[in-house]
Amino acid sequence: MKQYFEDFKWCPKCGSKYSKKDFNGKSFFFNCKNCSFNFYQNSKPSISVIIPNYSDKSKILLTERAIEPRQGLLDIPSGFPIYGEDAIDSALREIKEELGIEIKIEKFLFTINQDYIYQRLSNNVIVIYFLAKPLKIVPKKIDHKENSNCQFYKISDIINYPEKFAFSSDFKAIKSYFEKLNI
Ligand SMILES: [Zn+2]
Fold first, then answer.
1. Separation of CA 182 and ligand 1 centre (Å)
2. N or C: which end of the chain has fewer CB within 10 A?
3. Cα 136 → chain centroid
């Protein structure tokens, strides 16, 4: 299995070559022996939005991923904030870009950490889950570069199939949302 220190070979500040011992695996940073720069590997935030169906809140909007990682599997609509962007602004922008619709955020739900490989680099993502106000219609103008399909799924139909989901964080989130719905 690949070790994290193999992801970065050179100091991003001065360009000196890293060796294995320059990586601190406990606090997750590279320390450059040449310029002393500490290159911290923090978890990255991403946002995901659970969008329930207006007439049945046990149905939620899911997309089918058109791209790697995990192409073809189910995804809660999501994305990464642009540098400096607020989490809610990021959620509204991503949904508009991906699904072509304006949503309103009902509330913050919870966060779940998720390991994520992107372009062969290891990442740990703190997924920030929001709940949107229920939606009456299925979005028609989805961005097919990222998603091949988008529809409402009845949670009870998919709750026993974690393998259908691109990310275990989304499966856990849906389970948690569904449990609260039934209290
Ligand atoms: Zn350096």
1. 54
2. N
3. 24
Full-model pTM: 0.91
CB 108 within 8 A of CB 74: no
Assign 121 to helix, strand or coil.
strand
Ligand 1 mean position, distance from CA 120 (Å): 23
* Three-class SS state of 46: strand
Q: Angle CA(94)–CA(120)–CA(163) in degrees, nearest 5?
A: 65
The structural domains of the chain, ordered by start, are 4-40 (no CATH), 44-181 (3.90.79.10)
Average pLDDT, the chain: 93
